[in-house]
Design goal:
With 160 residues, the chain is mostly helical. The chain has helices at 5-16, 23-31, 35-42, 44-61, 76-82, 94-101, 114-132, 144-155; strands at 20-22, 65-67, 88-91, 135-138.
């Protein structure tokens, strides 16, 4: 959350001359409501099922840069679909997360005690991010352009 996946994803797509797609945007468009509303109205398990379908569809349809929501890797089938793909895990520490997002209540998984919950989410997810990642790029203290270049370098990709 707040790591810059959308901004960096768009910059990567531009530099590589590819299309950009974000599964969170796909979900909002399909459902006609914000992700936070889905969490509140239907709960996290229902959202994760929607997210799983959105990721599978996007991976099947899209050839360019694809940004996934932070919880997408929780699903074992999604992780299997990511096997063999070029995946960049954009990492940051909690202090950077506070600066970027304020860890506010608009993030449904961080509504109560956001710093503690952010740390717990990262402890639960970090190994999954690392499992699917072709490259890990730290975003702390870096501009989106610097992160984009680091991702290109890590994946040894050439710009278009």
């Amino acid at each position: 959350m707040g790591v810059g996946k959308s901004t960096v994803g768009q910059l990567l797509a531009e530099r590589l001359g590819l299309g950009y797609r974000d599964t969170d945007d796909d979900i909002v468009a399909e459902q006609g409501r914000a992700i936070a509303e889905i969490f509140v109205d239907e709960g996290e398990p229902a959202f994760r099922a929607i997210e799983k379908r959105a990721v599978a569809t996007a991976l099947a349809e899209h050839e360019g840069v694809l940004a996934l929501g932070g919880g997408a890797v929780l699903d074992v089938d999604t992780r299997a679909l990511l096997t063999g793909q070029r995946v960049v895990y954009l990492s940051m520490d909690v202090e950077e997360a506070v600066k970027r997002t304020g860890l506010n209540a608009a993030r449904p998984l961080l509504a109560v005690n956001p710093r503690k919950q952010w740390r717990e989410l990262m402890e639960a997810r970090r190994h999954l991010y690392e499992e699917v990642a072709s490259a890990v790029v730290a975003t702390d203290g870096r501009t989106p352009e610097e992160v984009t270049q680091a991702a290109l370098d890590a994946l040894e990709l050439k710009q278009a």
